[in-house]
């Protein structure tokens, strides 16, 4: 404890009224108190190493994170255009002023979305529906879906296991077989080109009446395009195959 005694005699560390050992910051000369069993030796050691206080260490170039880009850094905004309303809002926030009624109205009008208005919503919905039925627009939409890798690998739970079991007994089903025309794009759950058999795997949500109607329309279009010999639907809930072409039931 020779170090502690030396600094104590020099007056660099001293005991405060609340029995804590104190020292001065070598940078700002503020008093730093040390508590605990090793308060005296700790204060002396930090006095010897000229350790600064927390405020001095965490400010400016002394900060270990100085120059590091943080999440709150706004340098990514440099070179980007900001609307006049956003500029006004940011300046008001910085100045700490209250927004005037006129400014509030401008901000509220700029933030109101078109779909909140029923007439605008119906107008937009109608224009989108009309556009998607245009041959040129629909072809671009289907080409974009055709390039999507996600639709080619997405499968229902149990679909691949069923296809593997059927292929093990002589079939050759390909999962997610793509059927594409200029106006239609389908991904069949399973298709055997050799035997010309279509397999559709119906999970739980296919039991809904609305979905059954959509499946029937889709099924008729697939039959019209591929003209398969057999069209099988497998219900994952009841685990039953149904032949959709003719009256033969499996």
Write the layout of secondary structure elements.
Elements: H1 2-10, E1 14-15, E2 21-24, E3 31-34, H2 39-48, H3 54-57, H4 84-95, H5 101-111, H6 118-132, H7 135-146, H8 150-153, H9 159-167, E4 174-180, E5 185-192, E6 197-202, H10 209-226, E7 230-235, E8 240-243
Helix pairs in contact: 1-2
Which descriptors apply to this entry?
250 residues; alpha+beta; Trna Endonuclease, Chain: A, domain 1; five-stranded mixed sheet; three-stranded antiparallel sheet; 42% helix
Account of the 3D structure:
It is a single chain. With 250 residues, the protein is of the alpha+beta class. Helix content is 42%, strand content 16%. The protein contains ten helices and eight strands. The strands form two sheets. It has a five-stranded mixed beta sheet. Strands 1-2-3 form a three-stranded antiparallel beta sheet. Strand 5 and strand 6 form a beta hairpin. The chain is elongated. The mean pLDDT is 77.
**Secondary-structure element string:** HEEEHHHHHHHHEEEHEE
Overall outline: elongated
Major pleated sheet: 5 strands, mixed
CATH topology of the largest domain: Trna Endonuclease, Chain: A, domain 1
Assembly type of the chains comes to single chain
Q: Which percent range describes the beta-strand content?
A: 15-25%
List how many beta strands DSSP finds: 8
Which bin fits the share of residues in helices? 40-55%
Identify the strand order in the major beta sheet.
Answer: 4-5-6-7-8
Radius of gyration from CA coordinates: 37 Å
Poorly predicted runs: none
Write down the CATH class of the largest domain: Alpha Beta
Number of helix segments?
10
Named at the architecture level, the CATH assignment of the largest domain is 3-Layer(aba) Sandwich
* Class by alpha and beta content: alpha+beta
Distance between the termini: 93 Å
- Taken together, the total number of domains comes to 3
């Amino acid at each position: 404890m020779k170090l502690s005694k030396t600094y104590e005699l020099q007056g660099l560390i001293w005991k405060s009224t609340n029995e804590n050992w104190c020292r001065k910051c070598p940078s700002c000369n503020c008093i730093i108190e040390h508590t605990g069993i090793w308060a005296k030796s700790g204060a002396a050691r930090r006095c010897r190493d000229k350790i600064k206080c927390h405020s001095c260490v965490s400010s400016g170039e002394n900060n270990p994170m100085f120059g590091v880009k943080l999440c709150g850094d706004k340098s990514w905004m440099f070179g980007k255009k900001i609307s006049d309303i956003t500029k006004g809002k940011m300046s008001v926030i910085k100045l700490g002023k209250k927004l005037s009624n006129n400014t509030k109205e401008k901000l509220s009008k700029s933030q109101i979305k078109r779909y909140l208005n029923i007439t605008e919503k119906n107008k937009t919905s109608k224009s989108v529906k009309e556009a998607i039925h245009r041959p040129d627009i629909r072809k671009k939409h289907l080409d974009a879906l055709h390039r999507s890798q996600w639709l080619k690998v997405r499968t229902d739970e149990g679909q691949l296991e069923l296809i593997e079991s059927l292929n093990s007994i002589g079939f050759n089903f390909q999962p997610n077989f793509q059927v594409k025309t200029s106006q239609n794009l389908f991904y069949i759950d399973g298709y055997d080109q050799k035997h010309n058999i279509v397999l559709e795997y119906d999970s739980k949500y296919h039991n809904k009446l609305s979905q059954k109607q959509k499946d029937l329309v889709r099924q008729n279009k697939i039959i019209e395009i591929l003209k398969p010999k057999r069209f099988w639907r497998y219900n994952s809930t009841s685990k039953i195959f149904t032949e959709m072409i003719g009256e033969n039931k499996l």
